[in-house]
Amino acid sequence: MSQLPRRGPAPAGRPRAHGLRRRSRSTAPAAVARREITLHDQRVTYLEAGRRSGGPTVVLLHGLASSSATWLPALPLLGRHAHVIAPDLLGHGESAKPRTGDYSLGAYAAGLRDLLLALGLDGATVVGHSFGGGVAMQFAYQFPELTERLVLDASGGLGPDVSIALRAASLPGAAAVLKAAHTLTPRRIAELAHRAVRLVPGVPRADLDELACALASFADQGARDAFVHTVRSALNWSGQRLDGTGRLYLLADLPVLLVAGTDDAVIPLDHTVAAHDRLPHSRLEVFERTGHFPHAEHPARFAEVLLDFLHTTSPIRSDTDSFRRRLVTTRSRAAAAVVPV
């Protein structure tokens, strides 16, 4: 693997992970299966690899207007050494798209908890990309007893800035615009345009491919409505409404890996770097000349970085007492900083 810039230190004093088999030299990719389960009378689909790998459980969460398919380039590589679950979040992919669904971060986190418990899994390393990073952070806050490690991949929720296209999607009439755009653009024309733009130098192909998949998904009214509801729960015209940086201190004891690309046009690299500065024991992996989808643009490198992170850290699960200690300590420091007038 080529030299990676800005690798943060491993958490001090933590031994190597238990439960992760010594990685073999086998290059055979793991098989990926699509599975389905019903939760709360709603279909939840997910991709799975490495069930019998003997490795730790890893959950991969996709972003807005995406699906579990975004992880397909990396899934077979990760599945050689870990048990990997990549769900289609509610309103995305092949999962249910209820008109009355709750598309908030908290609801997505609760849905992930229910999926893990239904599958008989008592904890996982949670990996979130973009909006999925926000869900991953929310999951770690709400269910620390189920969170072993946290990986944020070009994550949202770390600052207000976001691309103008996503901000525009929060405006009134966005669903109608998406429907009109899909109706007025024949599929064949869209495919030709996509191929032509891929030839333009300097434009990350993974970003274009993911955008094409997102636009294709808007043919489904349920997907359009779910997208707009989800966007409005997290964004407005000014940018990201939900900022998790104020609670990053709650992750101080959790092994955290931060991944970002230098050419991300959706979420600024600075957000991830600032989060790394707030979490001194976290690791930072910056992918040069990479856009918003490091895991899809460089799947082998992403898999190697993630597997190394699993191999060199131990799973940590917080409980109520440890959370209380961090909250009280921070509150005490804030009170001490107040100077009477």
Automatic annotation (TrEMBL):
<dbReference type="InterPro" id="IPR000639">
    <property type="entry name" value="Epox_hydrolase-like"/>
</dbReference>
<dbReference type="GO" id="GO:0016787">
    <property type="term" value="F:hydrolase activity"/>
</dbReference>
<feature type="compositionally biased region" description="Low complexity">
    <location>
        <begin position="1"/>
        <end position="14"/>
    </location>
</feature>
<protein>
    <submittedName>
        <fullName>Alpha/beta fold hydrolase</fullName>
    </submittedName>
</protein>
<dbReference type="InterPro" id="IPR000073">
    <property type="entry name" value="AB_hydrolase_1"/>
</dbReference>
<dbReference type="Pfam" id="PF00561">
    <property type="entry name" value="Abhydrolase_1"/>
</dbReference>
<keyword id="KW-0378">Hydrolase</keyword>
<feature type="region of interest" description="Disordered">
    <location>
        <begin position="1"/>
        <end position="31"/>
    </location>
</feature>
<dbReference type="InterPro" id="IPR050266">
    <property type="entry name" value="AB_hydrolase_sf"/>
</dbReference>
<feature type="domain" description="AB hydrolase-1">
    <location>
        <begin position="56"/>
        <end position="299"/>
    </location>
</feature>
<feature type="compositionally biased region" description="Basic residues">
    <location>
        <begin position="15"/>
        <end position="25"/>
    </location>
</feature>
<dbReference type="InterPro" id="IPR029058">
    <property type="entry name" value="AB_hydrolase_fold"/>
</dbReference>
